[in-house]
Amino acid sequence: MKPKVGLMLGGGGAKGGYQLGVIKALQEEKLLDNIDCIAGTSIGAINGLLIATLKDADKIYETWVYAQEKQKEVKGFTRFKEDKRGLFSLDVLRDVFRKTIDIKKLENSPIDLYVVTSKLINPKLIASQIRTSNYEKCVFRINDAQDAMDKVIASASIPLYFGPTQIGLEFHVDGGVVDNNPIDVLIDAGCEVILTVPLDHGFDPSIYRHKNVMIINLTDLSVFQKVSILDAYDIIRFDQTHINEKANYGYFVAKDVISKLRDLNLLKKGLILNYNENFVKPTRYIYFDVPLETYEKVQKLKEERVIKRKEQKKRQKYQKKLNKKMKEDNQ
Fold it and tell me: Which sites are catalytic (predicted)?
């Protein structure tokens, strides 16, 4: 009997590019079709929405690229000018969602999508956004919610940076404040096998050791910074080079983990997770050391991109000189 399978997508801003690579690997291995539930926080909520509506790794990646291009058009502290509750507006993200996804597909999706937000108990003062005691965890199943888009955006509303998002009469900010890795949401939803894609070193699956669930981690946390200030920079670094590098890591690590799961006979021929009650109880946490070859593959791709970029700049410089000379000759 097929177990109920959940996918946990943690929060982490631009580090969510790693999840793009994992999604591509899961799709190639036909495991994405076996996901019953997704629980996401912040960028994980956004990626969860894209999975449930677009159902294609390449389209999800293209949506990320489109969002980056639209964000470049935004100038200044757009949110601060409006209501001083944050610095930047998330209206660009709303526009991207409206133009790239059909929210009605979420209603008919076979995947139950849950997002986590942090409700502000006292939203009046902007300073209240930095008080952890002023938050209450909220979990929404958004498949049939009319305000599904707002709830996803609320889950990614970093306090002060973006400020709160209004849902009904309440104000919510980034779910990462209260639960950056919502495994418990999937356990409560009845998932017996949970694939996890955390993006931070605070991830600790051992706290669920008394639950009857198999947790399979698809993240190599050594990819991410441990030093807070460097990690904070990674969170806001939405440039294409950084996104691609993280996506490549996610892809190769996930492919390696899936290969090892197959070796352990935890995957059937049809690539459906092989469920064994004796194996699952008590909680089994599966994590594999990532081989050196994976890092070498990513490094090679990185070097190739650097060489390609240098050659492109050289051609542009040459073309600029040529155009200048032609202009001078014509005068």
Answer: 42 (nucleophile), 174 (proton acceptor)
